[in-house]
Amino acid sequence: MQITQVLFSDINQVKTETVDQAWRALDPTEVRIAPAFFGICGSDLHVLHGHHPFARPPLVPGHEIAARVLEVGSAVTGIRAGDHVVVDPIMACMACRACKAGQFNHCEPPQVAGFRAPGFARSQHIVPARNCHVAPASIPLKVLAFAEPAACARHCVSRMPARSLEDVLVIGAGTIGLSIVQALRIMGAGDVTVVEPDAAKRALAVRLGAARAFAPGELPESLRFSGVIDVVAAQPTLNEAFQRVYAGGTVMCMGVPGGAREIPLPMMQRFERDLLSSGMYIPEDFDEVIAWLADGRFDTRELISDLFTVSEADKAFVRAQQNDSIKVLLQFADA
Fold first, then answer.
1. DSSP secondary-structure letter at 78?
2. Torsion region of 5: left, alpha or beta (phi above 0 gives left; psi -120 to 50 gives alpha)
3. Backbone phi, psi, residue 251, to 5°
């Protein structure tokens, strides 16, 4: 059997190749899928550049996909050939304390497709049935490909205490920041303010539900917030988050820090400011955001900035690194 796949052949090297792969029968609880669209994530770029803590080239990337089901194992229920699915990329061990509690995102060491586990950027793949979330066929597959970043956003907001959602500052309006703006709106938060250097993304944040958006350094000194979500996790953005949150409020670290960060612990401790973090998602996040996509509450129309074929993967990854891109999708030939 021949499959087409995207490969990070070396640091900063992307290619599309056709390879021979031996046909394997499914285990009873497995599903064979054909990805239709693959979304490029910032963490994929970290791997490509050799900056990711858990993964380095050569590898097949890909953890954001919408797919069609080709075949199901003999013990699989609730999934049929032809179904459209989102696939949770966390390949949990199912045996540790976290997995037994349903907190698959806490499974250690993390086995995530495109990082420590084989990536989804290939024309066929076998995955555990438990990782597949069936979606209505009414959702276009390129829209369904947005379920993974939307699930990240939903999980982040769900971890915020209700008192910290009265008025929220979101620092960073890339794909995840814009998804968080929508999740905050959908989940009933109060006013949302955004800080983002790109003017077009600031305007888009307002169209998607933010009350206001500012360039870095332009946020009025007097403004404070019950909750701050830092989607960047650089030292300067964390400093801003700590300075902007009210006493008793919450700072949520949503961005992936590139290293250790300093925390102003005295002012956090004295005024009971909480620092939380959000890492990926749990299964219910996927089920919820599929419903958001199905009824139009989560709008992807302006979030998909570019669409390339898989044969153009090298160009797609160049485009994904440009500041004015949001979500770059790769489309498989039979999508």
1. S
2. beta
3. -105, 125
β-bridge mates for residue 68, sequence order = 34, 84
DSSP class of residue 165 equals G
* Residue 59 CB partners (closer than 8 Å, separation 6+): 7, 8, 47, 114, 115, 118, 119
Tell me which CATH homologous superfamily contains domain 2-146+300-331. Medium-chain alcohol dehydrogenases, catalytic domain (3.90.180.10)
Q: Domain coordinates of the chain in residue numbers?
A: 2-146+300-331, 152-277
Q: What is the dihedral of CA 156, 161, 166, 171, to 10 degrees?
A: -30
For residue 119, report the phi and psi dihedrals to the nearest 5 degrees: -75, 165
Q: Which two tokens stand for residue 169?
A: 């500052």
Beta-bridge partners for 4: 18
How far the first Cα of the chain sits from its last, in Å, is: 19
Taking only the tens place, the pLDDT of each residue in 91-107 is: 999 999 999 999 999 99
Q: Is the pTM of this model over 0.90?
A: yes
